[in-house]
Amino acid sequence: MIHNTTIDHQLDHRSIRKFKPTTLSQEQLQTLYSVFQHTATSMFMQNATLLHITDEAKRAKIRELCNQKYVGAEGDLFIFVVDLYRNQQIRKQLGQDDGRVHTTDIFFQAMEDTLLAVQNVANAVESMGLGYVPLGTVNDHPLKMLEVLDLPELTFPVLGMQVGIPDQEPQLKPRLPLEFTCFEDEYPRDFKVENLKDYDEVVTTYYDLRDANRRIDSFTKQITGAKLNLHETDRDQISEELHRQGLCLDWHTN
Amino acid sequence: MIHNTTIDHQLDHRSIRKFKPTTLSQEQLQTLYSVFQHTATSMFMQNATLLHITDEAKRAKIRELCNQKYVGAEGDLFIFVVDLYRNQQIRKQLGQDDGRVHTTDIFFQAMEDTLLAVQNVANAVESMGLGYVPLGTVNDHPLKMLEVLDLPELTFPVLGMQVGIPDQEPQLKPRLPLEFTCFEDEYPRDFKVENLKDYDEVVTTYYDLRDANRRIDSFTKQITGAKLNLHETDRDQISEELHRQGLCLDWHTN
Fold it and tell me: What keywords are annotated for this sequence in UniProt (chains A, B) (predicted)?
């Protein structure tokens, strides 16, 4: 294994859900913005926008929708936004039609821009000795979240991130062994669940030892359990949200 | 601005499209796999898979579909795959139905897992003194690419990456100033294209000075030009590809 400070942080990644009661300095914030800005971007379209949420009332509303007490609490709250509004405005104000901005293709390229920027900022955060947790819960109630964030058409808040000085030291969570996730040339269709037996035991032991939470599900129990079972959830509004925002459409139906 | 080796690499990012005729050592490869493995993952579902393409015939076919001479040429070629096949197999082999694996919601969480892993690997690559270029062109001909990669249902190759020792020193490409992309609390709807005048000049100068390419389009000219104009392209097969793969469906229509 090759070691350097970047890689050592990456291999030591754990989500932080408890932060000290401080906020980022202006210098830290500007550095994260610059890292965001320098992320690779598809076709040089620069389709990502970063919102930094400091308003207490807004933080409280977002926390309520995310239903996680650490969201918008100690530390800094960011929302990473897929943004085709800016490029639509450029086209419109220069006398062009919307072109391909509504297409699934361009939306996916914007998703790429935005999610690469999330991880780039995450790595910068950890390089400064800070911690973070990605917030997928910003899409737990998509239509309400759009209202709270007051976002224009052609935007989509894909992930949030809470950042700060860690006030906990969680255990490293054991990941699927590489034999199940990294392949040379051929994707092996002959996956056999019994080969996960050892990994299941490792995961169960991890939960047994963890202080914060009494859940003791193995990996396969989690995958066969509630989170992937069919159930009603507002998260199924994501398609409706995207179409309402004018995103992810087939161009010939514009 | 805060400086450390991670951040300095991030602020100095440029895509590399010309590599020396070497490939990664086993140690480098295993390190990149480990970084891939330790990326944050939504709901601990671990929905990403990494393909390392070394077979020359396969590399040639991918290069042809991507229509970029550096794809699968010098250096190493990776394909980052959204993967819900593995978790479907776990459920199936343990006697469960597919549950929510076909939903748009779960597909988006898998996109997040996979694209975060792309940038995590990218940062590890640059920390080793290597370079990379993300390959969005793996979706230029989605249906043909699925055949070449021989991928099962519930998978989607979202991005490729060519990695190696840089054999060029491209200029740093000027990005949109932060006032257009990073906002506090409120998304400003009052974007005015005339405020991009200075940035347009910076971009034009960049192209004027660049050796490799004679294109001298400003940013707004690019956005109002061919790449976002309506046109026929196989990239509009992405929706069809996803649905054929059993991904990104509404659960009640499963």
Answer: Flavoprotein, FMN, NADP, Oxidoreductase
